[in-house]
Amino acid sequence: MANETGGISRRSLLTSGGIAALGTALAGCAPGEQVGPDRVADAVRPVAPMGEHQAGISRPAAVQPHLILGVHDVDGDPASVLARIGESIVRLTSGEHPALAGIAPGDLSMTVGVGPRLMRQVDADGPGTEPLPAFPREDVDERHRGGDLVIQVCASDPLVPALALAGVIDDVPELVERWRQCGTRGPSVEVHGTHSAPRNVLGFVDGIAAPLTDDELAESVWIRHRATAGASILVVRRMEIDLAAFRRLPVAGQEGVIGRERASSAPLSGGEIGDDVDLQAKSPDGSYMIPVDAHVRRAHPRPAGVPLMLRRSYSMDDPLGLLFVSYQAELRTFTQTMERMSESDALLDFTRTTATGTFLALPGFDAQHPLGSTIFGAS
């Protein structure tokens, strides 16, 4: 249960998506999909928190199965708050923070984004200052729209994310929590090469198309704008899904909604899971093999005229649905895609968005340059 307290490349044209603090962080966050004990026991590689880009976006390449995401307001000086969050992240990912209670951090990664209100304080028209507009099929109250800061925490050990978030909240009392959500990713399916993607609560593989190479990430994900160089625009959407209604559809009907075969994840236009989606392919009777309102058609980047976004989607068990997290160099990558989907995406008929926001996922940091200092200055 979620505890709420407060030019396009070829691959880009593919498509498919303290004790008190500890008690707050763990309340109701039982994972929806357990990872087998053998997998948890396997050695995992640590994820370095410092670098040109923050961890938790393009690295690790194999996305961890467990997440907790918290959205907060900031009551204090952003430069100081961010610097101390960065210090907490270093201590947590090294296993030196007492909040982990002796539990190894493993592949813990933590990613911090700053909302439009704070970004406008330093550059009224720069990246990250534009709020996310409202879209159809939303039921979002004021607390669950926007926010000053988001912390995405991921790990293979299901205990670690909530403990790590509690550690940051303990260290930085200026964070005033709005809402949080836990999510999980199921076992991954091989797509092509080293790229794999998990199935979601609908039973379909989610995140088949993704920018993977350095060139593709530079084109689609990373901002190159002065002080924000190395940052990315982060979008968060919590979508409840009427899974019972979706399951009442015959398998062929479900496949028509998505635009892929459920078992193999191959596009309905033919081929295998990692093959290009052919939006022009027609059956002998002249109808499109991928229906005109299928999700893969409406979310495809080519008609929207945008690059492919980098998605980290997580299934939720309470509420039942998907936590959608995407990274892109420009907000329009998401908004233009969402506008097309809102026109006639059959999948959206089964969804209701209950939390939403956009943030600037900050550039990376190191010992000489604290988190957020290239934008907000040193504290």
> What percent of residues are in strands?
15-25%
Q: Helical amount among residues, as a percent range?
A: 25-40%
Structural class: alpha+beta
| Average residue-wise pLDDT | 90
What is the terminal-to-terminal distance?
Answer: 37 Å
**For the CA atoms, what is the radius of gyration?**
20 Å
Number of helices: 12
Q: What summary fits the major beta sheet? A: 9 strands, antiparallel
| Beta strand count | 11
Shape: globular
Question: Which ranges are low-confidence, i.e. pLDDT below 50, for 5 or more consecutive residues?
Answer: 1-28, 30-41
Describe the model.
The chain is an alpha+beta fold and 379 residues long. The protein has 12 helices and 11 strands. The longest helix has 16 residues. It is globular, with a radius of gyration of 20 Å.
Summarize this, please?
By secondary structure, the protein is α+β, with helices and mostly antiparallel strands.
Please supply descriptive tags for the structure shown above.
single chain, 379 residues, alpha+beta, nine-stranded antiparallel beta sheet, two-stranded antiparallel ribbon, 12 helices, 11 strands, 20% strand, globular
